[in-house]
Structures are given as C-alpha cells and as structure tokens.
Amino acid sequence: MVTYPIDGIEDDMSFLEMLDVLNEELIAKGDDPVEFDHDCREGICGACSLQINGEPHGPDRLVTTCQLHMRKFKDGDTIVIEPFRATAFPVIKDLIVDRSSFDRIQHAGGYISVNTSGNTIDANSIPVNKHDADDSFAAATCIGCGACVAACKNASAMLFTSAKVSQYALLPQGQVEAVERVENMVRQMDLEGFGNCTNTGACEIECPKGISLENIARMNREYLSATTKG
Ligand code: SF4
Ligand code: FES
Fold it and tell me: Which of 230, 208, 220 is CA-nearest to residue 144?
C-alpha cells in the first residue's frame, strides 16, 4: 500500500478524474502512474472496477466507479483503493485484475444460435410477454464488472452468471439451448474457482446495475431442471 497526498480535487470530479490528476503528477515527477482499468467512463463497459474504502465501486449505490463523484468524500480523507480481490480475478498490476474468467463463462453459453443464412426470422414475429421481456432486459443490463464477486465473502459469481443465464431463460429464443446453456455456464463458473452462493445478498447491494437476487433463484431452478431431465 502506498499513500499519495493529492491537492486540487474538486467536488464534481469523478473518481477516475481524481486518479488522472494523481497520475499526471506522478508522470511529471518521473514516477510510474498507478495502473487502473477504464474505458467508457459512463457506466456501460464495467471496466472501472475498484474496491474503494472496502466497497466495490465505493460508497454510492447503483453507480460504477467512473460515475462516483469526489463530493462523496471529505477534504482530508484518506481513501483506500484496492483491486477487486478473488482467486478467479488475478491481479495484473496495481488496481487492474484479469476478469477473463467472466468472458469464459459467457463463451460457455451466454448466447443464442440464429440461422443467418437467408432464413432469419424477424425477432418481432415471436411474441414475448411484457413481464418476461422486462425481467430479461433487466438481467441483460449486467455489465460484467465483477463487483458482485468482490462483495461476496465466498467470491461467488452467481449474480453475474445468473444474469447471463436469465436474460435468455426468460425469452422464447433462449429455450432451444437452455439445458446446455445453464449446465455449461455453471460448470465453467466452478472451473474458474468462484465460490458458491450462501444467500448473503452483498452482491445485490453492491451491484451498480441493481441486478436482482431473483436471477440466482431462477438459475438454480434452471440448473435443477436441466440436470434432472432424462
Ligand atoms: S451482476 Fe452487477 S455487480 Fe455483478 S458483474 Fe453484473 S453488473 Fe457487475
Ligand atoms: S469506465 Fe466503463 S463503466 Fe466505468
């Protein structure tokens, strides 16, 4: 851990802008900047994942680190910033962790197969009930940031994986591959070394997109049904 004193931080700066100021100072002095991940800086990509004063994405609710503002802190505060900690998220450098384990869970089943050889059916020709469409859309807002894993005492990826399973499980288009999807994604989640869920609920509280624990219950039902068929 290294403590860096820093001046000139304004209330309406984002947390990442504060780190930019720090890094500009470090670079001007010939020191190495503090490495951190970021991309969109508008709450979409999930790259800017930091543990701030012990909380994934910091003290605010329903925001990512890039949407967190310095007005949430007081002048003179010492802010403790750490990378997300989980065996399945190895630290690359400073505040950057490798979250490719999430990509591999996605690759194991987070998709549907569509015939694009000239026979594509217009998506609107398949009716979807409004309630399911809304729940599917809500699950699909997961940005894969990993805050749920960082918040969990078991480093479980159940909230992330269940959101990715649910977004298809709720739609008719997702039914064709439903059994293989849930089996393969859960298997990959376990292979990556994530822990299991013990219903603590810290993941839901820290999730910047408000992904519901209902998705975990849905994934468990899907998994039970898939593994007891035939
Ligand atoms: S479920 Fe929430 S906390 Fe977990 S990866 Fe998705 S957006 Fe991030
Ligand atoms: S940088 Fe993309 S969500 Fe924060």
Answer: 208
Could you tell me which residues are beta bridge partners of residue 56?
51
> What's the mean pLDDT in 25-42?
98
Q: How far is CA 23 from CA 98, 103, 124, 174, in A?
A: 21, 29, 49, 45
Q: Which amino acid is at 217?
A: A
| Residue whose CA is at the smallest distance from ligand 2 atom 3 | 43
pLDDT digits (tens, 9 = 90+) for 108-162: 999 999 888 887 778 788 999 999 999 999 999 999 999 999 999 999 999 999 9
Given the CA of residue 143, which atom of ligand 2 is nearest to it?
Answer: 3
| Ligand 1 neighbourhood includes 84 CB (under 6 angstroms) | no
Would you tell me how many other CB atoms lie within 10 Å of the CB of residue 181?
23
Element of type H or E holding 92: strand 91-93
Residue nearest to atom 7 of ligand 1 (CA): 142
User: Would you say the CB of residue 43 lies under 6 angstroms from ligand 2?
Assistant: yes
Contact (CB, 8 A) for 67 and 55: no
> With a 6 A CB cut-off, is 57 part of the ligand 1 pocket?
no
Spatial strand order of the sheet with 81-82 comes to 55-56, 51-52, 81-82
Amino acid at 13: M
Please list, residue by residue across 202-212, b when 16 or more beta carbons sit within 10 angstroms of its beta carbon and e when fewer do: bbbbbbbbebb
